[in-house]
Give the backbone structure.
Amino acid sequence: SLQPTPAQVGLNVYDPVTLKTTPAAQAEVRPVPPIRESYTETFELGWQGVLGNQLRVMADVYRAKITDFTSPLTLTTPLILLNGQQVAAFIQTPIVTALTQQYIAAGLPPSEAQTRALADAQTLVPQLATALGSVPVGVVSSPEVAAKGADLVVTYLNMGGLEYWGGDLAFTWFATDKWTVTGTYSFVSEDYFRVDGVIPGTKEPVALNAPKHKGTLGLGYRDVARGFNAEARVRFHSEFPAMSAGYSGTKCLLRSGEQPGLFDQDCVAQATLVDLNAGYLIPRTRATVQLTVSNLFDKPYRSFVGVPDIGRFALLRVKYDLF
């Protein structure tokens, strides 16, 4: 039933690009510039070979430079929020009054009821004001956007330049005619950048959306005579920040005392998972039964920001070769 006037509870504008909140009267809504072509210059050196007729090795190193880097889909629609401090001032008296009446109805003397209501309001009012002040109540749009409501607009933005380097290593060891050991490892120098922003003189965050470290290690068995094959594989990756459209997972980058953005989530956590593959060629047929199990030990695993945890996944297939 409370209906504050604009003078009592004003509006703030939250810029999802700069992550800044500004009173509406002081906010500057920037146009979204057109997209320029992005140029990537990469130098790569690689080698592959077989050592001792048993070990096959592939390795490479690279360095990349990107000019006018194009961001992932980025939320550019400014959001309208209520002024949290003014919300707190506006609801303070009504909440104290309501609590006092409840306590009196419960049998407390009026003076004691008011004292208790004031004490409870000191905790309740900031919580309510923070919650109400963080929920968008509208968006800033343009007549050029054919929106039918409070639609959010995502687009690509040109950032400044960035550079990174990395390397890859893979091997296959043929231990016997039936057993093989395989492994891979990849490294990239940076998984998060701060590049020149759309606003001159500012730096804006860009995530590589991939971990600095990732790799696999597998043990395989293949018996052609008996028609049986199997492989167990361990795969891992390090923790990494991720940003895509309205999803942002960069909390692991916050320094002590820094506050996350309005939609900020946890980074993608490091993970070590075990997969299993097994196949069997049915005798005197051309049919093969293949079982694939990902995340064998059912470890809760989130592969990217904004997606649910994934547990064990099993797939049973029957393949029949006509020729």
